[in-house]
């Protein structure tokens, strides 16, 4: 087999002196609230299929059986499996299945080849994995190269935020570019997704797979995440309550060290309470069994820059969001901060801790955007467009300064039948109401007189016309609102009353677009301010 080009450096020694490592602290508990499939995520493998990954692929194939068995029989956070291969330049196709045999078959069919170029199209593979997997998924990226397509970092980070998935990198090599964006994007994705960057020798991939198997049994809740400079005296106080059954501390970095002190001030030195689950020259993972409630002290270090993360797996779940106003629920928060806020006083990081979660984060985010977004003007229909053209072509201003426009007809007025008898019948019924309520009659007469004075109506000369013309008699009636503090009488003109032909006036008129703000958009703008004044005239 030909050797890998020298552009990509495979991990053959126990450590890389200049490699920037990642430190992770994880709290683990029960996570029973995710037992329903709606709250479960996907177990995702994103794999570099260039020929130098043949040893990694062999170990993944060997370890897949135990991982899939754990996911199906013991895990309450995995609903299905996803496999996404990537090469240069091809990415995919993805395999999405609930059948472990289908995934194992997909792994067996993969053939590693080529790979003369370094870096590779790894971010394209991650992006595809995020698109096809469920929210809150566990994504593991296996590669020995950095990211050629690092320009996709913005899209990948946005997808990570939307899906709330965790991305872990199992990196068994690089392209001598650890200070360039091609590598830095891995650190960015891991930090944004509460993931890790594991850098290790190719012969140790199977040991990381054992950690993968144990980490998917229950759902972890992220508590703390930070980045430290090289050094060994970085101490973090970790508050732990009675809901946490287990604490896992992970360090990925050159010469990693971990020191754990319980709330009583006693340092844990080994079993039975402190157990090392993975001890390599670049990775150290320890587990604290049944930690007592209180403030724990965890001191970590590495000879390279490293990140610190604390996550919890318990019978409580933690969610967070951002809002410029005090929200009443997670549905009213955003998964990302707003870029521009005019006020110096910001209400943000609204958090909810609950013992059950019936909706996925994807559903909550969908609700949030539906609630927060002010509706934009929709694409107008052909009739609405025709109505706008009619308005522009037929609007005039008379000598008194009033604007007048012809009715926008979509049918010939000849289709209207007789409407006189119906209008007369309704008017007689209205007169009967007037006899019972003289006060209503006086207010109605006052309204009609005002309409005439304003020029909204005038006496018709229809009967004096020598040539019969189509006509529509507009029915009208009174609506009384005693609770109104301004206008108690409202006169309704009924243009939907059918004539003898079955057509009404409204039937032959073009309906124009809504040119006024909707009540919803008005309320959305109003809620952006601390004080709101309303009035009526």
Would you mind describing this structure in some detail?
The chain is of the alpha+beta class and 537 residues long. It contains 11 helices and 24 strands. It has a 6-stranded mixed β-sheet with strand order 5-4-3-6-7-9, with helices on both faces. Helix 4 (153-163) packs parallel to helix 5 (181-192). The model is unreliable at 1-36 and 340-357 (pLDDT under 50). Residues 42-202 form the Hemicentin-1-like von Willebrand factor A domain. It is found in: Secreted. InterPro entries: GBD_Hemicentin/VWA7 (IPR056475), HMCN1-like_VWA (IPR056861), VWA7 (IPR052577), vWFA_dom_sf (IPR036465).
Name the features:
537 residues, 11 helices, VWFA domain-containing protein, alpha+beta, 26% helix, elongated, 3 domains, disordered N terminus, 6-stranded mixed beta sheet, glycoprotein, Rossmann fold, signal, 24 strands
What is the topology, as strand order, of the major beta sheet?
5-4-3-6-7-9
Q: Helix count, per DSSP?
A: 11
Helix fraction? 25-40%
Number of strands: 24
CATH H-level homologous superfamily name of the largest domain: von Willebrand factor, type A domain
Mean pLDDT: 77
**CATH fold annotation of the largest domain:** Rossmann fold
Model regions low in confidence, pLDDT < 50 over at least 5 residues: 1-36, 340-357
Report how far the terminal alpha carbons are from each other.
87 Å
Oligomer: single chain
What spatial form do the alpha-carbon principal axes imply?
elongated
Protein name: VWFA domain-containing protein
Domain Hemicentin/VWA7 galactose-binding: 221-315
Main location: secreted
InterPro entries: GBD_Hemicentin/VWA7, HMCN1-like_VWA, VWA7, vWFA_dom_sf
